[in-house]
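Q: Got a minute? One more chain.
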Amino acid sequence: MTDYVIETRALTKRYGKKLALNHLDLQIPRGRIHAIVGANGAGKSTLFRILLGFLAPTSGQSTILGCDSQSLTPALRSRIGFVNEEHTLPGWMTVAAVVAMQRRHYRQWNEDVHRDVLGNYHVLPEQKVSQLSRGERAGLNLSLALAQGPELLILDEPTLGLDVVAKRAFLESLLNSNAAESCSIIYCSHQMEEIERVADNLIILEQGSLVNMSPPDEFCERVHYWIADMPFKGPDKSLVPGLLQVQRIEGLFHYVVIDQGEDFADFLRSHGARSVQGMPVSLDRAVNGFLAKNHIGPEGHEPRP
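A: Always. Here it is, folded:
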């Protein structure tokens, strides 16, 4: 048994002239919840499609549960649970019929897990899938995926489009399920408050490459947020050490920087700052600031607020 549930070596995918994955080297260890984040176009969806064998890479290799992702057998696929953002299920079938179909396909099916998870939702066996709300379909999908007893569970934007109540129900169903503790989970989301709550490991992809893999709190410790009352335009952006993002809001400069200590305040004062204030950094601000760094061009254009 390999120590990694997912491993890629120089994985590359091109769509014509567009490079979706750029010689990606990635090793995701067994256990825990691993969050994958990145801006649109970072390569997350392409990575999942290759890992699940739905798309062939241009070059490089990828394995999932130690097997070549381009040669997945039905037995291997049964060890992988997958929940996508659409929560696609046959709308003409009843909930009971869908569950019965899944029960027949998976030898490791655990009826107790299915009932425990689905019990968090007001879903009746005789209801047709088409009659369920989006949140109820999300809960049904999660119950089906966990009940199959997967070694690896991939959740691709599972709460996208759900209201606040439905999001909370989904996350609590996931975190409170004993089945979730026994498998490795890949959680892909743009919702940083969800990532902050569930993730043990933060993986950031940017333009098809791996740019960070660390616990979320360790990543936040690297990023600092400063507000400075600067005269005129302040220092040239090319001179600001560790600059990720800068915005001018109501006459004050807001700096997000990485790998800079308290001496960054001295740097700002040396460039004329009349006052400097450090602020706590949330995971949302840290990640978005990190991803925004490519939008600070040589001409000094600032990212949009």
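A: Residues 134-147 form the longest helix (14 residues).
Q: Perfect, thanks.
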